[in-house]
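Hi V.,

You were right to ask for the full record rather than a summary. Here it is.
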Amino acid sequence: MPSCPTIRLRGILRCTAIAVFVCAFTIAGIVPAPSSAHPAPDSFADLAAKLLPSVVNISTTQTLKTAGGDQSSPDLPQFPPGSPFEEFFHDFLERNLPKGERPELAPRKATSLGSGFIVDPAGYIVTNNHVIADADEITVILHDNTNLKAKVVARDTKTDIALLKVHTNKPLPAINWGDSDTACVGDWVLAIGNPFGLGGSVTAGIISARQRDINSGPYDDFLQTDAPINRGNSGGPMFNMDGQVIGINTAIYSPSGGSIGIGFAIPSALAKEVVAELKNEPDHVVHRGWLGVRIQAVTDEIAESLGLDRARGALVASVSDHGPAQAAGIQAGDVILDFDGKDVSDMRRLPRLVAETPVNKTVPVKLWRKRAETTVQVKVGRLEDSDERANAKPAPKKTAQSPAGLVKILGMTVSGITPELRDKYSLGDDAKGVVIVEVANNSAAAEKGFHPGDVIIEAAQEEVKSPEDLATRIDAAKKAGRKSILLLVQRQGDLRFVALRVDQS
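Predicted structure:
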């Protein structure tokens, strides 16, 4: 483990502040305020005094070991842990001594700091999973400086949430969850945490944005705030002006590691349900809903080719065998517009909506299919069941050979699938459609990223059996005055819809 690890996600830092010499980055997030906006307060003093006792500092220790050899070699001078002299001397030995003769550094304790908050008087505490990951020992420090040893009740890596438990002889001051869904951009929020080990620090700001995707997990739906958040704030609460938790500070965007006013928080609408399952389920595991589809974004071109009024919803690229979606009749090419009465404004919203739905609940799903709306009833499955099914590959099926022959259209040359092309492009025995054998530079196909070896399975949501089929459907789209045609393309086993312009030469 490096002495000061920084986890970057496309410029996003996870901050679990460090004490001594190890830093795990912890961040802060956004806190939404209630739907009815509060005026700017003259002071946050009364609110802060009420909330501070419910926020805790979290200290973790981890033993770092060097690889191999006698850990207590007397040949290596002893420096304080994390000392620059220690690092310098170690680098010197690495460069100048043979591997077998290098003295080894003794094991050392690394201490990391983060934040958390009490959600149950019995001693249950919420924090980020990355705050306590790999810790040998966890200590919770209350507002009155009482130190309590904590154990991990459960954790959920997909949302970066962990639930801790401490034993105490008296009830602890717990705080209440708020509703992040009612928080508006511009609402005041308050963040309390342990930045750089300075426990009980209060900062204020506003909600800067909602539904941020920072590519940290499958259910990204962060609140963004300009309330200053720094290393050590990770796992701490974001409050609205009613003193309710509407976010868990989790990450910051920073080129330097310090706060620049862009922080992210897990919204309480997601966190509250996760914490409840971690605490109350017998197996302390989050049971998530599963639909059994692979989806992609609906672009303007795809929307036009499907006859949608605008780019919205989630386009189904493929359907898992024996999954809930297949059982309900959902097909590749459908656009999911609404799930269980909730609008699917874009692709990113659907995974969270499905995950939050109780397993075995039957819900209505509104689809866009063949240029019209239709609704199906889906019995939601359990996500864990999908893992084996997703990895299980169907046995290869022998299919009729597609006619050979070449057709040049829209800058690509396509052919029927022949034994020679199967071998050349490593196509499966069950591959069907037409295969691209050449793509012209600066063509419409090249702009969309088509490559030789890609297989076109459908055009305009109709099966393609030969190159002539593809040419016919493209011509029909042109005659109908459409700007693009929707193609279902397979590349190395991965299915994806692509809208290809037909109104260009």
